[in-house]
Amino acid sequence: MPASPLPDRAALAMSAGSATHAVRGPASLAGFARASGIASLSGERVGAIVAATGRYAGATGRELRDAVDARLLPAIDQALDEGRSIAGSDHFVGVVRTRNGDINLLVIDGPIDLSAADETLVELFCRNVGIAYDNLLLRDEMEQTQREIVYRLGDLVETRSNETGNHVRRVAEISYLLALELGLSDHEAEVLRIASPMHDIGKIGIPDEILNKPGKLDPEEWACMQTHVTIGWNMTKDVKPEVWQAAATVALEHHERWDGSGYPQRLAGEEIHIMGRITALADVFDALISRRIYKPAWPIDQVLAYIRDERGRHFDPAVVDAFFARFEDIDRIRLKYAD
Q1: Angle at 280 between CA 278 and CA 281, to 5 degrees
Q2: Which end of the chain is more exposed for a tag (fewer CB within 10 A), N or C?
Q3: Hey, which residues does 105 pair with through a beta bridge?
Q4: Can 213 be counted among the known catalytic residues?
Q5: Whole-angstrom Cα distance, residue 13 to residue 332?
Q6: Catalytic residue among 203, 216, 295, 336
Q7: 86-88/49-52 β-pairing
Q8: CATH topology of domain 9-137
Q9: Most confident of 42-46, 82-86, 88-92, 309-313
Q10: For residue 92, how far is the Cα from the chain centroid?
């Protein structure tokens, strides 16, 4: 849910580099803990060292062939040529394969006493590391695809209402900053960053003549416009992944107000989900500083004064305080994603 950002190759290498402590079972494997180790992850024959222990501890970032003891090079070459792990009395070269063809190495330099059963166990461990890494890559690809779908849908809604797709990007980044400032976890903040661009997805069901009316809406039109929150909720509430559940909540609750005067449920205070409270302020801030078909952009000082005045009425006081605590960063987002 970059949640929190996925472990990259270096993070996997750290797991592989500590494999000497992770493997449990036969007593002979305890010898690994006294050995020096290197994890080198690269699709090429000569790879960079991304994690190292013992006498190789200072070798991180160097090329494997330049750092490793020369006596290990034949075993490394054999492991690469044959695509399998190689064990000797004073070394072990573990091969970790990935589905894209990379062969990554875990090199143990030190006295090792492995039985045939131990070698099978360690080989299985290396294979499992490769499978785990492939799963991480697949999960990353799925999350990237999910994020792209969310942004494209958000862009589609903004295009229908003659607004820029940068609105949803600014709301996403501002929501993310506010979430972190308010103490949400990295994972929760990342989920909100991905979900918040869907806050107005329900506008897809609002007629163009209302969505793009240049003047003030009459009561009947306004009642129709308000239905976009329940339309958005119904579009997303039954999609199971966490991001989409968060998007459903944000879509439904981002027009609720702290004092209970919002819509559609007239929730008040902490009855409103924290993601709804955060997105509410991010959305209003960006809408006010932006030109809309029904209004010009407000001057930034006027927008800030409005947010201060609405503390405890429209907006959660804690969210307003977080907004001003991070305003310099928020203003940089405004400029970075300017229309």
Answers
A1: 75
A2: C
A3: 40, 95
A4: no
A5: 35
A6: 203
A7: unpaired
A8: Beta-Lactamase (3.30.450)
A9: 309-313
A10: 36
